[in-house]
Write a structure and sequence with these properties.
single chain, 547 residues, alpha/beta, Alpha-Beta Plaits, TIM Barrel, five-stranded mixed beta sheet, 19 helices, 17 strands, 54% helix, elongated, disordered N terminus, binds ligand C2E, binds magnesium ion
């Protein structure tokens, strides 16, 4: 701030000096014209014809006058050079303020104005392509920032080479680029081709220390072409950037390495997702996430053997929300661990009041298994809540097995050593190899409900279920069938050997208070250590209120 002020004062003083110098020069020239026109002929006459020389004072005044003119002209020339240098410096400063030094692209600040300029200049339509590198953070972390810079520079170069002349290319920050291209209204497919071409170019391996690194990009496209009734007409650069950003986010959601054109519905989807995200943050603090419980039954005897805890969100705005809505968001925003830990703690407290022979199964996200301290955290929670590890089963899905298998294995082993059981959930829907099944010490396979539900309708499902049961037999892993919806499915399963089952046929997932009522009816609540009687409904009411 101070230096800016000092500079301003300095340049003002210089300008004043320049005006004074110019004034002196002009006055000197006028004087020179005035005195020179009378004194010079006198001097010439005295030299040539020996006439009387002019007054020495006048001669001195003339010499002084000439010196002043020379000084003034020199200053004038310096002034011109100075102005030119200043103009060039200002041009460089302007360029620096508009250009990203790493890639030579325009920077974020100038992307929207450059788009506006292109829109104003052309009679064609204008497309804004938002490009984001997939998993760049990971690549950066793994290979170092120098490699990351090289990847960004190479990607910028490749995009630039693919763009038609007159297009704008900007780096919006981090691993985000934008291109602005004009196209004829009749041929938006040219932009599709361009997007596909950029995706292809940027996916070519980049050599980092002789190791080829492959990156992919996600692209969102918006354009000045009208796309719907509710659409604001003539979108400007900022609007195009905002829409392309939403479309790019959509491309990420749909699996990355692809492009999408902006559609109005994407904006409402994003708003809904933001609401969910904010709701989750608030919900965790407010204790709005509650465990529900689904019965697990021995299919042969029909006896209740335990419950699977399924998370529910008691949202003030949305009502009771299913986990498929909020678990993926909680995973993405890094809140799955605190959310899951709070649910598990509540479940331990609930299950402690059930008959000890009843097991408690909880689902664990693959994200939680990435945490090397996960097993310690779970064991600590068991100790804190004084819950017997033998009654706990954790359910993990096959997608966990794509993660670092060594870490998952050691985590599973340390939990098993403490008595916790491990089930492989939704078996048959992922990609677990038989080798992984043999290496990882699972205690149980859970047949995915998509096969069980179609048991009577599709012959292929019957064969798959038989094959999974045979596999479980061969590996000495008992199986649980999920999604038993009716008596027909149950009887089809009964003939297939000993197994556990669960599904709507036995009841929908229930609140802890309803589970207590059910267990009280079955005489399966633990006795009060003081009175020796089963815990009564007063405590169940307490739970209902607290939920
Ligand atoms: P899952 O572990 O496979 O749980 C079984 C899902 O199937 C539950 O859905 C349950 O309500 C549903 N279901 C049970 N019986 C039937 C049936 O007969 N027919 C049909 N069509 N569906 C049945 P829900 O509660 O919506 O949970 C969905 C998934 O969300 C769970 O699948 C599990 O993967 C995940 N999930 C639930 N709670 C948690 C949690 O606390 N943490 C994590 N990481 N994931 C959870
Ligand atoms: Mg499960
Ligand atoms: Mg399942």
């Amino acid at each position: 701030m101070f230096s800016l002020k000092a500079k301003a004062v300095g340049s003002k003083k210089r300008a004043e000096r320049d005006i004074v110098a110019l004034g002196i020069a002009v006055a000197a020239i006028i004087m020179f014209l005035g005195t020179g026109s009378s004194v010079m002929p006198q001097i010439a006459r005295s030299w040539m014809f020996g006439a009387q020389a002019p007054d020495p004072i006048l001669i001195n005044a003339l010499l002084l006058n000439i010196a002043l003119v020379v000084f003034g002209l020199r200053r004038y020339r310096e002034l011109i050079i100075e102005i030119e240098q200043r103009r060039a410096a200002e041009e460089i400063a302007r360029e620096l303020s508009e250009i990203d030094p790493l890639t030579g692209c325009l920077n974020r600040r100038s992307a929207a104005p450059a788009t506006d300029k292109l829109i104003a200049k052309t009679d064609d339509e204008v497309a804004f392509m938002m490009i984001d590198l997939d998993n760049f953070k990971l690549i950066n972390d793994l290979n170092g920032h120098k490699a990351g810079d090289h990847i960004l520079q190479t990607t910028a170069k490749r995009i630039r080479e693919g763009l038609p002349a007159g297009s704008v290319l900007a780096r919006l920050g981090g691993d985000e680029f934008a291109c602005v291209v004009n196209f004829k209204e009749a041929s938006p497919d040219r932009i599709d081709q361009l997007a596909a071409d950029i995706i292809e170019r940027t996916s070519r391996p980049i050599d980092i220390n002789s190791v080829p690194i492959e990156i992919t990009i996600s692209v969102g496209i918006s354009s000045t072409m009208s796309i719907g009734e509710a659409e604001a007409t003539n979108p400007d650069g900022d609007t195009l950037m905002h829409r392309a950003d939403i479309a790019m986010y959509h491309a990420k959601k749909k699996g990355k390495n692809r492009y999408f054109w902006f559609e109005n519905t994407m904006e409402s989807e994003l708003r809904f997702r933001n609401d969910i995200e904010n709701g989750i943050r608030r919900g965790i603090a407010d204790g709005a996430f509650v465990p529900y419980y689904e019965q697990q039954v021995d299919l042969d005897t029909g006896e209740l053997v335990g419950f699977e805890m399924l998370a529910r969100w008691n949202s003030p705005e949305l009502g009771l929300v299913n986990p498929s809505v909020f678990i993926p968001v909680a995973e993405e925003i890094g809140l799955i661990s605190p959310l899951s830990e709070s649910l598990i703690a509540q479940a331990f407290a609930d299950a402690k009041e059930w008959d000890p022979k009843l097991t408690l199964a909880v689902n664990i996200s693959p994200i939680q298994l990435r945490d090397p301290w996960f097993s310690q955290k779970l064991l600590k929670l068991l100790v804190k809540e004084n819950f017997p590890p033998e009654r706990l089963e954790i359910e993990i899905t096959e997608s966990c097995l794509h993660e670092n298998i060594g870490v998952v294995k050691s985590m599973i082993t340390s939990l098993k050593n403490q008595g916790v059981k491990i089930s492989l959930d939704d078996f048959g829907t992922g990609y677990s190899s038989l080798a992984q099944l043999r290496t990882l010490p699972f205690d149980r396979l859970k047949i995915d409900r998509s096969f069980v539900g179609e048991l009577n309708a599709e012959e292929a499902c019957d064969k798959i279920v038989n094959a999974i049961i045979a596999l479980g037999d061969g590996l000495a892993m008992p199986v649980t069938a999920e999604g038993i919806e009716d008596e027909r499915i149950l009887s089809a399963l009964r003939g297939k050997g000993q197994m556990k089952g669960q599904g709507y046929h036995y009841g929908r997932p229930e609140h802890a208070a309803d589970v207590r009522k059910r267990l009280a009816g079955l005489g399966l609540l633990v006795a009060d250590p003081v009175s020796g009687k089963p815990i009564d409904n007063a405590s169940s009411e307490r739970q209902t209120k607290s939920a």
